[in-house]
Design goal:
Bound molecules: adenosine-5'-diphosphate, magnesium ion
Oligomer: single chain
Strand order of the largest sheet: 8-10-7-11-9-12-13
Strand content: 25-35%
Number of strands: 13
Radius of gyration: 20 Å
Distance between the termini: 35 Å
Shape: globular
Largest sheet: 7 strands, mixed
Number of helices: 10
Length: 327
């Protein structure tokens, strides 16, 4: 490791990473030593963001820092885990101080919000790419998984759907809306909120869960395919933000973008009829948003209905009507 590299790590990452009782040894040695709490299982996930593939080249450094961590925390949320630690493998074309300061600030703003500690990483030179590995824990045996849906389960979604896809369309110049609406949608694209509290609440309540990163239809299909089941969806019940609602009112064709666009990082889950009241009561008490969007059925594939029970879209197993808008 060169002096410059050492200083870079020290200045932008080690000094901001903090301390925690469960970090026996953090940044600076050959590897980190972490203490998993008694009776918990370690939950580990990793995701890479590459410039030009996962974010457009003009994306602000602070947004890249936030999002690289957020997408990983979202995977932990979908398992019902409590996030605790993360590592960062950063590949940079040049070590630009302004870029590094903004990147670090965006990443640590989110890290502090959830009390997750940066415990190590790797720094290399090359085309811009950010890999974060997030780790957390879950009470042994209680992790949420993708399999386990049952016929008659209610299908629930956190937050609102499709804002990130609309935000991407704005970035790509394919959609133009009033400035205030654009701002709200771009925020959802660049600063997704991992649904940690929602995931924790779903332990012991949901049969299964997944985070929506590739689009609702694709991810719901993944989850239900694991159980060889299908679903009916009520498109009139989809939780839409004010901005998305106005966008769709102006152009109904945008609905397919909401259903198939990725990058929302909301949780989608299946809840037994006998648990839905408990879920909604607890969600209301904790000020968490869950919306019922459909019901699990024995017939595979997804059937989408409007408010008049007209079938608008049939998505068969393994076949997609709409091509995914690449995020
Ligand atoms: P090694 O050659 O042993 O892998 P490195 O030079 O890669 O050592 O890293 C030195 C220390 O700095 C290690 O503790 C490593 O985890 C940490 N580190 C390197 N890059 C980063 C980074 N981008 N963020 C956080 N910690 C980092
Ligand atoms: Mg190394």
């Amino acid at each position: 490791m060169s002096i410059a590299e050492f200083e870079l790590i020290q200045r932008y990452f080690a000094s901001a990473s903090g301390t925690a009782d469960d970090v026996v040894l953090g940044i600076g040695d050959d590897a980190a030593l972490l203490q998993v709490p008694e009776g918990k299982q370690l939950v580990v996930t990793v995701d890479t963001l590459i410039e030009g593939v996962h974010f457009p080249p003009q994306t602000a450094a602070a947004d890249i820092g936030w999002k690289a961590l957020a997408v990983n925390l979202s995977d932990l949320a979908a398992m019902g885990a409590q996030p605790a630690w993360f590592t960062l493998a950063l590949t940079l074309p040049v070590a630009a101080p302004d870029w590094l300061a903004a990147f670090s600030q965006g990443m640590f703003t989110l890290a502090r919000q959830y009390g997750v500690m940066l415990v190590g990483g790797d720094t290399t030179r090359g085309p811009l790419s950010v890999t974060i590995q997030a780790m957390g824990w879950v009470e042994a045996g209680s992790a949420l998984q993708r399999g386990g849906a049952q016929v008659e389960d209610g299908i629930y979604l956190t937050g609102t759907l499709g804002d990130a896809a609309l935000g991407l369309a704005i970035v790509q110049g394919r959609l133009s809306l009033p400035a205030a609406l654009q701002h709200a949608l771009l925020l959802r694209l660049n600063r997704p909120e991992p649904r940690i509290a929602e995931g924790r609440l779903l332990r012991g309540m949901a049969h299964c869960a997944i985070d929506v990163s590739d689009g609702l239809l694709a991810d719901l299909q993944h989850m239900l395919a694991t159980a060889k089941l299908g679903a009916r969806l009520q498109l009139d019940q989809l939780p839409l933000s004010d901005a998305a609602r106005q966008a769709v009112a102006g152009d109904p064709a945008l609905l397919k973008l909401l259903l198939c666009g990725g990058d929302d990082y909301e949780l989608c889950c299946c809840v037994s009829p006998q648990d839905v009241d408990r879920l909604m009561q607890q969600a209301a008490a904790d000020d968490l948003r869950f919306t019922r969007i459909g019901t699990v059925e024995s017939e595979t594939g997804l059937r989408c209905f409007d408010g008049n029970m007209q079938r608008l879209l049939q998505q068969e197993q393994g076949y997609q009507h709409f091509e995914r808008e690449e995020a």
